[in-house]
């Protein structure tokens, strides 16, 4: 059952300017492992965080830094959620966050689907 969807696009140049204006921003938003990545990858990860918040309908006591992104062995991105974040998502009815990222023409776009537990089947209708 889909609980929510979210999409966000980040302009790389604008993101770089934001990081230059506020150097502490990267530390507030990203894990130490993520901060070692290129600015292009950071822009995509920021878009992923924003899309997740949109899919959830808000932060609900979480922070953007609670949504780190990692790459699987095959290259697919996924959120690397802590047990505490996973527990909070479960309270919100979210079992899984699905993530897709793309980069093109100086933009990074993320799409997130928040999936809940499978809905119980509807009772049969009596004619």
UniProtKB/TrEMBL annotation:
What residue intervals traverse the membrane? none
Reaction(s) catalysed by this chain, per the record, are:
apo-[ACP] + CoA = holo-[ACP] + adenosine 3',5'-bisphosphate + H(+)
Q: Name one GO biological process term.
A: fatty acid biosynthetic process
Where do the 4'-phosphopantetheinyl transferase domain residues begin and end?
4-93
User: What GO terms are given for molecular function?
Assistant: holo-[acyl-carrier-protein] synthase activity; magnesium ion binding
Q: What class of enzyme is it?
A: transferase
The record's InterPro entries line, in alphabetical order, gives:
4-PPantetheinyl_Trfase_dom, 4-PPantetheinyl_Trfase_dom_sf, ACPS, Ppantetheine-prot_Trfase_dom
Q: What is this protein called?
A: Holo-[acyl-carrier-protein] synthase
